[in-house]
Structure formats: structure tokens, C-alpha cells
């Protein structure tokens, strides 16, 4: 580790990862944005799912100023963030077989929709089963994961496969196994995770691509405005009324 302060080192590491994503995932970002634009134009609905801290990036897409109004959170009880008590229960639930299928069976997902599945490791039963089951329904699946985990860890799904193996498109966040960017001789474990920063930026790049792709086709992107600017609530009310059959967080 260099003589620079840890804050600067972390920010440099995050910036380096963002540059890698920008340069190495450009084609995948374009493809993902195009897939979502196709879904919107064809009357489909958009959903995002993540477990634990991966849920933070999914939640950042939903009911978001400057974001697509049609993005809905696919919530799995007990794994959305770290609000469950005790918190380790959320990690345990990610490894439960059958949970994803039960959630999908009671969700509004249907053929023609698109689902973003965010899982840093992509190795647990929940995201793998979620991708497999969603595709079986005719849903397009975009996986957002660190591909490195597939070669450096063992899958926890009975099939021995990872999230990346069951997606129509995969976006690689480039995060190293362990999700910690810094080390110090006097600190016993690596620290300073960057996955939330990078994954959220990667997904917002996809959303920007989707909005631009729709506009290029002559379709007004269903975007939300900040409720803290004049006229924002009225704008959002009109958008949500127009697309009420595709927005589930309003009901």
C-alpha cells in the first residue's frame, strides 16, 4: 500500500474500477440498454433484484429521480438489504433452495418482462435459481456480477453453476473476490469495499443507455423528476398514471 492516505487510495481504486467498466463493458452496457428499451417499447415491465448489499444497487433504480419510472423492485422477504434481524439470517436465506421459485410464483413477472439480477458473487442458490426460473417464464435476464467469483470460488447451487451461466446478458463489475480494495500491515483483514459504488454506476450507465435508445426511436422515455424541484410531483403523477399498469411500487 502506498504512502497516500487511505481515503485517496480507496477513491483511486474506485475510479480505476469505473474506468475498467467504462472501457471493458461498453458493448455489454449498450446491449443491456437496448434490451431494456426493447422491453419498454414492446409493453413489457422492468424489475430489479438483489440480496443483501447487492440490493442497494437494485433499490437505487426504483422510484428514482432521473430514473425510469417502470423499474420495479422484486423483493424477497428477509434479503432486501440488512434490515432483517439478525442480519446473518439474510445471508442464510440466499442459500435456501426453492426460495426464488416461490417468490416468482407470487410475483407479477411474466413473459416479455426484463429482470436485472444483481449478485456480486453470483454463487448462491437464490440468484442462480432466480435467473433460471425467470428465463423459464420467458423473462429476459440481465445479470450484474463479478465474473471473477466463478473461477475463484465454489458454487453453492446444486447445479454447480453461477448467475452468469443463466443470463441473456452479463455485466461484469470487475470487483475482486472478497470486495475489499485496501490492506494495511496493522489491519488484520482487507477493507474498503467498492462493489456498491461500481455496481450502481454500472446500472445507471445502462439506464442512461435505455433512455437515449428510446428517444432515438421516437419514444419518450418514462423518466421521473425530482420531487424537490418545482413541478416535479405533478410530472411524476402524470408519468405514473400513464404507465400505471407497469408500475407496482405505487399500489
Task: Please give a structural write-up.
- With 251 residues, this protein is an alpha/beta fold.
- The protein is built from 9 helices and 5 strands, in the order H-H-E-H-E-H-H-E-H-E-H-E-H-H.
- It has helices at residues 6-24, 26-41, 54-59, 88-93, 99-105, 125-136, 149-152, 195-216, 232-242; strands spanning 46-50, 71-73, 114-118, 140-145, 169-172.
- A 5-stranded parallel β-sheet has the order 2-1-3-4-5, with helices on both faces.
- Helix 7 (149-152) links the parallel strand 4 (140-145) and strand 5.
- Helix 5 (99-105) packs parallel to helix 6.
- The N and C termini lie far apart (50 Å).
- The model has no long low-confidence stretch (mean pLDDT 93).
Concise synopsis of the structure shown:
The protein has 251 residues and is of the alpha/beta class.
Amino acid at each position: 500500500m502506498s504512502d497516500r492516505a487511505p481515503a485517496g487510495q480507496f477513491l483511486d481504486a474506485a475510479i480505476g474500477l469505473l474506468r475498467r467498466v467504462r472501457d471493458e463493458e461498453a458493448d455489454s452496457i449498450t446491449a443491456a440498454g437496448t434490451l431494456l428499451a426493447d422491453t419498454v417499447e414492446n409493453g413489457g415491465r422492468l424489475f430489479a433484484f438483489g440480496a443483501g448489499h447487492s440490493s442497494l444497487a437494485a433499490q437505487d433504480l426504483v422510484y428514482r429521480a432521473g430514473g425510469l419510472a417502470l423499474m420495479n423492485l422484486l423483493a424477497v422477504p428477509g434479503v432486501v438489504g440488512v434490515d432483517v434481524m439478525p442480519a446473518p439470517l439474510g445471508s442464510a436465506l440466499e442459500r435456501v433452495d426453492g426460495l426464488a421459485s416461490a417468490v416468482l410464483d407470487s410475483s407479477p413477472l411474466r413473459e416479455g418482462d426484463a429482470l436485472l439480477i444483481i449478485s456480486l458473487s453470483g454463487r448462491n442458490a437464490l440468484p442462480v435459481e432466480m435467473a433460471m426460473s425467470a428465463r423459464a417464464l420467458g423473462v429476459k435476464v440481465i445479470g450484474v456480477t463479478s465474473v471473477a467469483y466463478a473461477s475463484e470460488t465454489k458454487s453453492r447451487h446444486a447445479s454447480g453453476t453461477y448467475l452468469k451461466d443463466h443470463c441473456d446478458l452479463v455485466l461484469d463489475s470487475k470487483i475482486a473476490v472478497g470486495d475489499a480494495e485496501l490492506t494495511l500491515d496493522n489491519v488484520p483483514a482487507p477493507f474498503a469495499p467498492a462493489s456498491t459504488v461500481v455496481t450502481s454506476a454500472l446500472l445507471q450507465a445502462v439506464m442512461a443507455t435505455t433512455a437515449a435508445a428510446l428517444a432515438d426511436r421516437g419514444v419518450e422515455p418514462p423518466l421521473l423528476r425530482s420531487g424537490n424541484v418545482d413541478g416535479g410531483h405533478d410530472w411524476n403523477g402524470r408519468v405514473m398514471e400513464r404507465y400505471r399498469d407497469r408500475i407496482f411500487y405505487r399500489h
